[in-house]
Amino acid sequence: MKGREETRIVVIEIQQSVVVRGIKNKLQELRYQVTELGANIREIGRYAGKVELFVLYLSDTITGDIDSMTILQQILEEVDVTGQQMILIGEKDYMNEITKKVPTLKDFDKFLLPIDMSKLGSMIDQLIEDEGEGGRKRVLIVDDDPAYAKVVRGWIGDAYQTNIVLNGTQAITFLVKNKVDLILLDYEMPIVDGPKVLEMIRSEDGIKDIPVVFLTGIGTKESVERVMSLGPAGYILKTTTRENLLAKIKSVLAHH
């Protein structure tokens, strides 16, 4: 389990609040690495899937503001795509009210005001410990199609810890900061394609030995030969079944 000094937390405020400043300061006193972000989806997206935890404060005025509700939905979409862990903090009655309007909030851990920092710290430590328990291998899914990436995560999420990034640059950034046991890499991506990402991975000492399995939508003999000439641990067609994908991952991990 990571120590608190190694645990990265992003505290998000959709609307400015002194409560958020207090949460940030107290978490820092508990020795966590804490970053505070406002309602900037681009910035939030930069951190999603790359830190151990998001903490989102739900002030009791969000439901009365259309822009704030839109931002909340966008945050939840980012979290859903990347599998980011998140704790919601708010008043009990308001938490119940906003969950009726945004049902997906029920899927996240909640911490009710007033804040007992000792209990919040224990809750965070337990979440981080649970994430790393059981010896589950971690698989990074790299695909520019978030819908397909979420399907893959749904297929393998019970067996493996999973994270999603949506392009090659995000993949390298994630890999240099996080331990991964296997990479499922989309072969056909814009700008930085799968072969280029594999080349970048092989050039980095700390990550060059991670097995990479290409995900490809083309199964002709010529395309398969082209994919395998790059020396990945394997490839699998995007039209495959859940059972075949799980079997492929299991086989590759057994040989690495």
Q: Mind describing the biggest β-sheet?
A: 5 strands, parallel
Report the oligomer: single chain
* Class per helix and strand makeup: alpha/beta
Number of H/I helices: 10
The amount of beta strand, in percent, is 15-25%
The count of β-strands is 10
Task: Give a description of the structure.
It is built from 10 helices and 10 strands. Helix 7 runs parallel beside helix 8 (194-202). The strands form 2 sheets. Strands 2-1-3-4-5 form a 5-stranded parallel beta sheet, with helices on both faces. The chain has 256 residues and is α/β, with parallel strands linked by helices. The two termini are 23 Å apart.
Write the layout of secondary structure elements.
Elements: E1 8-13, H1 18-29, E2 33-37, H2 41-47, E3 53-57, H3 66-82, E4 86-90, H4 92-101, E5 109-112, H5 117-132, E6 138-142, H6 146-156, E7 161-165, H7 168-175, E8 182-186, H8 194-202, E9 212-216, H9 221-228, E10 234-237, H10 242-254
Parallel strand pairs: 1-2, 1-3, 3-4, 4-5, 6-7, 6-8, 8-9, 9-10
Helix pairs in contact: 7-8
